[in-house]
Amino acid sequence: MSNGLQVKVKFLDPLWRQEPPGYATNSSVGLDLKACLDRDCVWIHPGRRMAVGTGLALEIEEPNIAGFVFSRSGLGTKQGLVVSQGVGVIDPDYRGEVIVSLQNTSQQSRPVYRGQHIAQLLFLPAYQAAILPVEELGTTDRGSGGFGHSRE
After folding, report:
1. What superfamily would CATH give domain 7-125?
2. What residues contact residue 37 under an 8 Å CB cut-off, 6+ apart?
3. Whole-angstrom Cα distance, residue 124 to residue 2?
4. Would you list the domain boundaries of the chain?
5. 21-45 burial, b if ≥16 CB within 10 A, otherwise e?
6. pLDDT tens-digit profile of 97-126?
7. How confident is the model at residue 149 (pLDDT cuts 50, 70, 90)?
8. What percentage of the chain exceeds 90 in pLDDT?
């Protein structure tokens, strides 16, 4: 399903040589990220966060494309382990290791194992905006109503 986007990947952990990054199915858009730990297992206690290395560094070769790290739905639903900031952003000029900040939203301590799929990476368009200061904004039917305003 590749759309022609090319991303250079540097493997920082030998775990990736055994099973290179890939998509679960031909229609999957999220690339699975693994926990590359220096030991077999770590525990994340209830309400706590932990930065987990993925053993990958990226070079996105197309302008206006960034990497976005999302929670894995099964891990979040079944274990309560989610990306702590909601979505992680990998800027196209970042060359360091991709780190996932996991948060345990459950009431029990949860293990994270070396090689476990912990998050998914999507490559999406992202643009820098030209900021134009104005005194007034254009009008719309919605106006400034927010937080559920359009779903009364």
Report:
1. Deoxyuridine triphosphatase (dUTPase) (2.70.40.10)
2. 52, 53, 112, 113, 114
3. 13
4. 7-125
5. beeeeeeeebbbbbbbbeeeebebe
6. 999 999 999 999 999 999 999 999 999 999
7. low
8. 80
